[in-house]
Amino acid sequence: MGGGGSALRVCADHRGGINWLSLSPDGQRLLTGSEDGTARLWSTADGTCCALLQGHESYVTFCQLEDEAAFTCSADCTIRKWDVLTGQCLQVFRGHTSIVNRILVADNQLFSGSYDRTARAWSVDRGQVAREFRGHRNCVLTLAYAGAPCVEEAVAGGLLVTGSTDGTAKVWQVASGCCHQTLRGHTGAVLCLVLDTPGRTAFTGSTDATVRAWDILSGQQLLVFREHQGSVICLELVNQHVYSGSADRTVKCWLADTGERVRTFTAHRHSVSALKYHAGTLFTGSGDARARAFDAQSGALRRVFRGHAFVINCIQVHGQVLYTASHDGALRLWDVRGLPPPRAAAPKRSLSRLFSNKVGCAAAAAPLQPA
């Protein structure tokens, strides 16, 4: 199984919990957003802090790192754009009237979701609202974007998919701001959302303990995945398999096209709060303050990473290093060399990027316990 390896480096510069961790597309930098109201840029080469991003007036809820700019959103109702070389704030996006919970940069547009029940599209260059998406009856928790040529010409400009605590997901035409479809079926808040690469199918996870698959163009519910016993907190979609992490302390693997459950990953002592698939290994982060590495093919536990004091909110993998960010305020770097190779060659095609959502984890889980 493998024991708990020592961290290569512990980065404890933040003075509050880390809510999110983003890896740049080129793999050279990491961005952390914290309860202390700051974000920090880190080098993946040696784990050193490259820049301190200061300016938000409340805690940072989420962040996204691009090669040339960093983006953060906050409980201060704003979004900020930063220079990744100097740490200077380049733009402040104002307009939301409550906590901005999620942002997404795609096709030179910035999308945001807020507790004010709206999602918005912004011009990345001008910092102005280009479109407002109104219709949810409660907080917008998660976002995904399907851009051209993923979707048909009838929805030129792309589609934005939002999940909410009102129990629905909505599909919006970005060009017009109109609601294209409302995806109804969940009986609890939609906590996480992921799209397949063709941009036609959305998978949503909810506090109702189900995962559901939807055709986003027609609004039809395609499948319901019903074996979890607690809230579905995070999703990963890769190699035509859906991985769902839950408050029931398990991860389940499902066939994306049929909904058949093919594997269950156990050993967690608390809610599963983060997932990342990498090179045949499924990495998980948990409310028990530990990260784990499983053989994705067999489900066997290969390694446990111990050292954090509280829930692990986000994980990333680059090269031979696992990065974990925790509510204890630390970013830890772990050596993942020596993990047994997967038993079978992974399928060639990966279907999607992860757009999971961590808001609601605290509500879905019991009080956190130190390791």
Automatic annotation (TrEMBL):
<dbReference type="InterPro" id="IPR020472">
    <property type="entry name" value="WD40_PAC1"/>
</dbReference>
<feature type="repeat" description="WD">
    <location>
        <begin position="53"/>
        <end position="92"/>
    </location>
</feature>
<dbReference type="InterPro" id="IPR019775">
    <property type="entry name" value="WD40_repeat_CS"/>
</dbReference>
<feature type="repeat" description="WD">
    <location>
        <begin position="133"/>
        <end position="182"/>
    </location>
</feature>
<feature type="repeat" description="WD">
    <location>
        <begin position="183"/>
        <end position="224"/>
    </location>
</feature>
<feature type="repeat" description="WD">
    <location>
        <begin position="11"/>
        <end position="43"/>
    </location>
</feature>
<dbReference type="InterPro" id="IPR011047">
    <property type="entry name" value="Quinoprotein_ADH-like_sf"/>
</dbReference>
<dbReference type="InterPro" id="IPR044715">
    <property type="entry name" value="WDR86-like"/>
</dbReference>
<protein>
    <submittedName>
        <fullName>WD repeat-containing protein 86 isoform X3</fullName>
    </submittedName>
</protein>
<dbReference type="InterPro" id="IPR036322">
    <property type="entry name" value="WD40_repeat_dom_sf"/>
</dbReference>
<feature type="repeat" description="WD">
    <location>
        <begin position="225"/>
        <end position="264"/>
    </location>
</feature>
<keyword id="KW-0677">Repeat</keyword>
<feature type="repeat" description="WD">
    <location>
        <begin position="305"/>
        <end position="337"/>
    </location>
</feature>
<dbReference type="Pfam" id="PF00400">
    <property type="entry name" value="WD40"/>
</dbReference>
<dbReference type="InterPro" id="IPR015943">
    <property type="entry name" value="WD40/YVTN_repeat-like_dom_sf"/>
</dbReference>
<dbReference type="InterPro" id="IPR001680">
    <property type="entry name" value="WD40_rpt"/>
</dbReference>
<feature type="repeat" description="WD">
    <location>
        <begin position="93"/>
        <end position="132"/>
    </location>
</feature>
<keyword id="KW-0853">WD repeat</keyword>
